[in-house]
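Progress narrative, work stream C.
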Amino acid sequence: MLFNSFPFLIFFPLVTLVYFLIPERLRVVWLLGASYYFYMCWNPKYALLMLLSTTITYFSGLLLRDAERIPDPVARQRRKKLWVGLSFGSNLAILCTFKYLSFLLDNLVRLLGLAGLSVTAPAIDLLLPVGISFYTFQALGYTVDVYRGDTRAEPNFFRYALFVSFFPQLVAGPIERSGSLLKQLQRPRKFHYRRARAGLLRMGWGFFQKLVIADRVALWVDTVFNDPAGQPGSTVAVATVLFTFQIYCDFGGYSNIAIGAAQVMGIRLMDNFHRPFLALSIQDFWRRWHISLSTWFRDYLYIPLGGNRKGEARALANLMIVFLVSGLWHGAGWTFVLWGGLHGLYQVVGKLTRPPRKALRSALHIQEEGILRKLVAVPLTFCLTSFAFLFFRANSLGDAVTLIRAMVLDWQGSALAGEGLYQFGLDRGDFTVAVIALAVLILADLLNEWRDMGKWLEKQVLPLRWVAYLLLLFTILIFGIYGPNYDAAAFIYFAF
């Protein structure tokens, strides 16, 4: 079931209404059943995989709790590492089988071919389960939290299963931590009008991002990236910038709908985006982009690898490892690995050049948070992230090379002159709506950097609030892109 579908417009109010009407002792079971129904609308049999991952990590938590009772510290630690290893091994084996097996076999066949061995890879027809990377990482994070003693093992299986499968954030995050979401599920919730109103407003903004912006600019992006041969460099540059906004509005829109839906039910999910295109550096970008994943990798991979505690060279190597793994997490393809590697390289170069850049700003009397630095750093960071996103969106490395070659060797700025702007899936009207909607997005991010506009709106008089609510609603209804025969477009991160 998609957020931007008619079934969800029936499902969500019904689930929420029943949730607040039934006795508190039944709410966990009700939400658990609703979450599994939500997931099974894609493929019922793959709910068994989620249940398997849930069962493994649930019993891992209990076994880790029991291991704490072993008096001998060496034996205790050995037993705890055994349960963590089995939990990670089994869950990652499931993830790799469904997401990476074909990719691994194809690359193995190519390597053997280079060695002069002709081997045919077996045909594997496995459909990637929606959201498997998200719920697997959330469950594994719980295992580590129990191992470290940051979270107590959850004895109630139904409550833990809801933690893994909570439907607003099930298929595309945010990747929640047990110390936050699991604890909230242990406390009963009461309906709160202002909280529900704020949640619905956030959902509305998410729908605006998805339906008005992301699905509209996708028409231009798909036209160029799905037919890279012969594309002028100027159209490739525009498509790359538009994809940068598309993926932000698509994934950020999903996150806002998820956070808002949970907020209506009294559950607070972590923010996943914090105006990433106002970042002053790539490091700052990753503090603002897909925050739940970047902090997951920081806490469960970067720090265990040694972080920055073992010297600068080791810290830089750890950074590269994390970003290469992050790229592979996003997809079983070399384009994703290269995207992650580019961000790792950006970070390494940024850290190595930090002292001379700081000295240069000091010599030129440029303040760290001054407007002059922002006017240079923000566009530069945006350009670097957009270039990396070209690899993220390209259908293959060959297509990426073709697109980059066009930007370097075949610019053809005249291709966008006059009616040329409207030859890439957007007519004059849709192109105009896209430009205005992007301007609204940028203005909203700039204003929210200064002040939380949602809270500001809540303090305004009732007529002004309702004008804003209705304006947002009718903008979505009138200018949203709903697909042929109202065939809603899936969110990009459902593929990960």
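Work stream C, second folded protein:
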Amino acid sequence: MNVGSYTYEEFLQKVREFHGGLAPGVILGGMIVDTAKRNLPADCLFDAICETDKCLPDSIQMLTPCTIGNGWMRIINTGRFAVTLYDKHKGNGVRVFVDVSKVKEFKDMDNWFSCLIPKKEQNKERLLDSIRDHGYDVLGLQHVKVDIGSLPNKEIADYAICKKCHESCLPTGSGVCLACQGKTYTSPANEGCCCCTKSN
């Protein structure tokens, strides 16, 4: 069995390297992306829409040229475990998703996907075996037309220079970036910190 251009074992190794571990969502996501790609014309230049920010974006970035950084993948978080690959000029594409009615046929996959029991009580080895053996069986596929004009703009936004920290930032109207307004996740390290102390 292959997932994209990789054998299944090669794909698992890629998941370990890219995601940091054998995440069931990335593995099943690879099957979703592979199915979508196989149902597009071979010469199609496509973009991707990912409907969740959990695991599935990594599957897209591993198996297609679409990444968050190059703007060919948009995450439109509906909370659904689904991917749409579509012709970037015409909008014709395919949407592949996990069909919950099919998942229910496989106990270990259903326990995981439907969150029926806590993660720590799930048997991960049996779950991964179930995904390997039946992952493609639980997918649904729809032919879709993406309204390209209604998608969020992926062009680089205007930028400004913050009057306080003098770094480039998104315009805020006040001239002071969000970080300098206190809306940030970082703060300067202690002045005594060796990595921040200027050398003489």
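Strands lie at 2-3, 6-7, 46-50, 73-75, 82-87, 92-98, 139-145, 160-161, 168-169. No further action is required on this item.
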